[in-house]
Design a protein that fits this description.
- The protein is α+β, with helices and mostly antiparallel strands.
- The protein contains five helices and six strands.
- It has a six-stranded antiparallel sheet.
- It is globular and about 45 Å long.
Length: 168
């Protein structure tokens, strides 16, 4: 997802995750898709996640920012926020994403900001607003994530639970 080493975090957040053997920076990814798209997380906390996406390389045939590219940015930002809210012992799994596209963008960088609309014990919903470089709203999205124990995910993949020693 670009250079995540420049992501700004609140004091102590990295230590909270590192104490369990989890590399928080490595989790900030939309996978190979985010890397190919040039998606970058600028700052991240449970209260606000900020990221950018270049328009170039992420357009549809008319030369406009692809709606799916907006959705990738929105889902990534909202998922990072939900993950940070949930903490290192849970995983955030997207269950609903809706995007309303307000205006086209032909060039430049799109900036997204995800803020919580609801943060609970078993779910988190984030509102994500994308703007162009003129600060015009491009897209409004909402992502809801289910928050599940991390051990379920680890066991499903045959991996040890978070913070557990590797199985040999």
């Amino acid at each position: 997802m670009g250079d995540s080493t420049r992501t700004q975090f609140p004091a102590g957040l990295l230590d909270q995750w590192a104490g369990l053997g989890i590399d928080l920076r490595a989790l900030f990814s939309a996978g190979a898709l985010g890397g190919r798209m040039g998606l970058r997380i600028v700052s991240a906390s449970p209260q606000e996640v900020v990221g950018t996406l270049p328009v170039e390389g992420n357009t549809q045939p008319y030369g406009l920012l692809h709606g799916g590219a907006s959705a990738v940015l929105a889902e990534t930002l909202g998922s990072v926020g939900a993950m940070l809210h949930a903490g290192p012992n849970k995983i955030a799994v997207g269950v609903d994403l809706s995007c309303t596209h307000h205006r086209p963008v032909r060039s430049g960088l799109v900036r997204g900001v995800a803020t919580p609309a609801h943060t609970g014990r078993t779910s988190a919903t984030y509102e994500i607003v994308l703007h162009d470089e003129r600060e015009k709203r491009v897209c409004t999205a909402r992502l809801t994530c289910a928050l599940r124990p991390a051990t379920q995910q680890a066991q499903a993949n045959g991996a040890p639970e978070a913070g557990a020693p590797p199985v040999e």
